[in-house]
Amino acid sequence: MIVSTPSIDLPDLAGLTWRPLGLDLLATWHALHEALNAADGGHERLGIDDLRDELEPSWIDLARDSRVGLDADGVARAFGLVQVRPGDVTLLRAACWGGVHPQWRGRGVGRALLAWQTDRAAEIVATRRAALGTTAPAGALMIVEEQAESAARLAAHGGFHLSRYFFVMRRDLSDPLPTVQPPDGLRLISFEKAVAADPGLDDRLRLAHNEAFEEHWGFQPWSAETWQQWETGQRDFRGDWSFLALDGDEIAGYALSAGFRNEWELDGYTQGWTSKLGVRAAWRGIGLAKALLAASMQAFAADGIQYAGLDVDSDNPTGAVGLYNALGYQVQHRSAHWTKDL
Q1: For 20-72, what is each residue's pLDDT tens digit?
Q2: Residue 332: which of 315, 305, 309, 314 has the closest Cα?
Q3: Which of 51, 113, 182, 228 is a good FRET partner for 242, with 20 to 30 A between their CA atoms?
Q4: What is the pTM of this model?
């Protein structure tokens, strides 16, 4: 985590005082995030520890990349965070994450905050382009929940355009589960066992994932740091629920899973979450993705988990939505990606 002097600031609006996000504000930021979820139908129930994780990556400069608007009582009423991940090289995506408390909407706070985020995104992109010596395309990204009509209007007013829909899907594990065997010549092994035998396999898996998704919309390679931060090194990752398909020593495919206990408590049910499912090109079309997902569902159910969940690009070129439907997954939630060229 970098700390430096702010370069862009927000105007005083609606009696809010602006300052960078910090660990001392986690409790009030968390309360704001919960209020946004309730108002806008958000599905991601982040706990305080999860929000702390959002502030800790080394590539985030909190003083320059974040703002929180505090009312006269020090309560968070709006926030914005901008980041470009270090793996972004051929497409620089500035994720603009934020929101305004429902009681503070309609006062110009959202427009000012999004304008600040867009300006900061342009600064980060210019710095990254200079460092890389590239003229790679770049864009700002907003993720808007299906119910958040005001956020969609805000995005459109800010010059963003609707680019893509993403679905959250869920399957009841009390329904009969598939028992798909891996294709001939391949073997499935849990991530936990595979990495215990060969610790270097984790980074080979990262590279396999980068290869498997290189042609997908908006995809940029995962760096070793981001992979550890948000995937196999994060606290809710479950190596025992995650599987690799091996062809000899080659990784043919993988299904990585997590169990977000904080969400279980808030939502009132348990769910195994498939965060990554991929098959490398040479092994596609033989039913491997189905076998991997079936192995994950069997592992969830064996531990008494009630549901299996995942998210997916609605226009996924591999036909993933059809596969998930065939295996009993149903759409529970929709969100939209809004983008703006920088």
Answers
A1: 999 999 999 999 999 999 999 888 888 899 999 999 988 899 999 999 999 99
A2: 309
A3: 51
A4: 0.89
